[in-house]
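Z., the sequence and structure:
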Amino acid sequence: MRISFRTKLTLGFDLVLILFSILIVNFFYSKAHYVQRDNLRSRLIGIASTAALMIDGDSHELLRAPPDASRPEFEKIRAVLTRIRESNPGIRFIYTMRRSRTPGMTEFVIDEAEEVDENGNGIIDPPEERAEIGRLYDATPYPEMISAFQGPRADRILQSDQWGTWLSGYAPIFNSRRQPVGILGIDMAADDVRREEKVLEITALFILSLAVIASFVVGIILARHFTDPIRELLKGIRRIGEGKLDTRLDLKRKDEIGELGRAFNDMAESLAASRRKLDEYNRLLEEKVDERTRELKSTQEALILKEKMTAVGSLAGGVAHEFNNLFASIRGYAELALTKEDAAAKNEALRIALKMADRAKKITAALLSFCGPRAPVRERIDVRETLEYALSLLKRDLNTYNVKVVREYGEIPAVWGDPQQIQHALVNILVNAKDAMMGNGGILTVGVGLEGDRVFVRIADTGPGVDPEVRRRIFEPFRGTKGVLSGGSPRYSGLGLFVALGIVKAHRGEIRVESEPGLGAVFTVVLPTTSPEPLEQELPPEPARRPEPIVEAGSRRLLIVDDEEAIAKLLKEFLESRGFLVETANNGWEAVEKADRTAYDLILMDIAMPGMDGESAIKMILSRRADSRFIVISGYSPPELAPELRAHVRGVVQKPFSLSQIAAVVFRSLGAA
């Protein structure tokens, strides 16, 4: 999918602005978050430091074992802790600790908390028990607790449990000799801080959402500011490319884009002056070499015309032969069906005639590939099967000219591509190899295998080889190995390898040629196994023949538009037999007039018609009835419709078509199948 520069620029601006908004919001959120927690930590450190000064360090030092809990010093210090807790309602727990001989561990000295059944389960759980003197506590997750023996500290991370959220602070307890004999710890309730942080997070997300919306709006405005003049410049460049050298831009800006517009105008003026000089030089040159030029041009045109006529004559002869055989079969079986009285024999003859018509349809589709580009098909292809089918097409010629085929097939994955085009390319290369050995016999070696992650097809002949000069230009039109411009016979077009290279390149592949005079030639076609960009399928698949639902008579109105009266009449009779109300039009103008008078549920529109073509008729009908729906019918390659028309086209059918195919597309388009 092609993305415009404006879209890319808009997305770029949006991305930059959104990232900037995220950084700004994150900065202020982090700042507020830090300030909020820092205030709590500072308050907690202050309370812990003040409380630690109220503890008698010498008395604290005497409490060494659980029995010491009965000493008066224990009760005295515990009473001080209780007063501190009661004077600061936010304190959940207050306690003292001392260092342990075990690294990373501390020991409880006084736990001021009462043993209370806080969870209401009727028993005192271990977290609800009062810590005894000497009870070990793992302090490794709390580095601030360990470092508090050197000075007041507070945890940086909030802790939470089933009873709430808190933050812990610590301060050293000194004895009379100013030696730290323990620490005082305070667990301060922080539920309000947690709620404020949630509010802060929601506020930050809201502000960020507004910033993202504003970034999109600003991005669009900025993108238009830069891309509008660039679009004007692009239009001007295209007009210059079309030869309209009088094109000038009116960009009244004082920035670099304005400078670019003025430079464009200067360039256009210089190009116009150069053209005038060039025209004058050409006129003088033509006067001097006119006769020589005419002779050379005449010779070249005659040579190219001869090449093209030879190619067209050869192609026309082959096509006439194929179609004469098919028409003979179709006519013969149709006449045979007329003579048969037995219904089964009559139907069998008609089925064979239909089969011959389907073969004619495939030949027509193959011929259309020579007429110009068509919408490509992408599907999984077994290259070995495609190569075998190509060889089968040339089997008679290979046997006639005593060419032996040697196969060297390896295991390969499927490739993605257009099977008809790949077959076309392989046939062209095989024909080239066969012709190289014509009259002398030889060995045609075909191989298939893997080259890295790509599949290769190698076609080698035992012909006379290719001269280095010819090999350098082997893929040019009318040159190749047999084209007239390479000194070949006039009965060859010299287009086969040129067409093959174009097909392979369109499939993101390559063709390599290896040859030495007298040693034959090796052509290697390399194709990727990966799937390309998905491409729009141009035709609905040939449906299985099955009964279609019968629509109630008069419930749907259809319009058939085709300049071929027989086709319009055929479709009218067939669709009327399915219960539709059907009208016909023989050209685009008549279709527009009827569509003005009647609202049709579906219009079957032929594209190639004299006067107003089908695409123009669709545009005019949609300008008057915007809800119209169409099925496009084409005798050429599937048409490339304008983007604004595609939404109204429910299907594309290519001639020759089957009536079951028409029925399937019509019912699907109307939602009845």
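The chain has 17 helices and 19 strands. Residues 256-369 form one domain.

Let me know what you think.
H.
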